[in-house]
Design brief:
single chain; alpha/beta; 7 helices
């Protein structure tokens, strides 16, 4: 039995069905009060990236649900205090994405609540969320002003802990999960 299992930079490369299988294995491997630290690409950031990912979300017809979830995260309440909004469906297994520097056609993305919902159905409870790579400007600005973008992101990252209102503006997030 393990007290802690970490899965960072991993779930974006497996399907939702494979994720559920993985979570079953993790559940069995964790001690009764064990923790899972899990990272994910943040689908909410697609709204604010203002690029082809934004266009894809607009065309999906679920932009209103993604915006509603973003508003929940900026409410200042804790994970346990936030009532989960109605969720957009998770992405299809065969969905393709624009190239992002990683040579794959699909990088599975979840909103925090989508992932928390999946984790809850597998016997886990979310304890904390931590936004990773908080953006203060859209990626197109970064392409022409890398040094400025990096400074802004580093300043914002210093405030990420216990500031979940930054979640919609982060391209990734980490969840600390406990076995129920």
């Amino acid at each position: 039995m393990f007290d802690l299992i970490s899965a960072n930079g991993f779930i974006e490369y497996i399907s939702e069905d494979e994720l559920i299988i993985f979570l079953g294995i993790v559940y069995k491997a964790l001690s009764p009060s064990g923790s899972l630290v899990l990272g994910s690409r943040n689908r909410l950031f697609n709204i604010f990236s203002l690029n082809s990912f934004t266009t894809k979300e607009i065309n999906s017809g679920y932009l209103d649900l993604l915006l509603a979830e973003s508003i929940h995260w900026t409410s200042g309440k804790t994970i346990k205090e936030i009532l989960g909004p109605k969720l957009a469906p998770t992405q299809c297994n065969n969905e393709t994405h624009s190239k992002t520097g990683v040579n794959v056609s699909t990088r599975f993305q979840y909103t925090p609540f989508q992932l928390i919902d999946i984790l809850s159905s597998c016997g886990f409870e979310a304890v904390e969320i931590y936004p990773i790579y908080v953006h203060g400007a859209p990626p197109s600005f970064k392409n022409n002003n890398l040094a400025v973008h990096t400074k802004i992101s580093n300043i914002l990252q210093d405030y990420a802990r216990n500031n979940q209102e930054l979640v919609p503006f982060s391209s990734s997030f980490m969840l600390h999960i406990k076995k129920k």
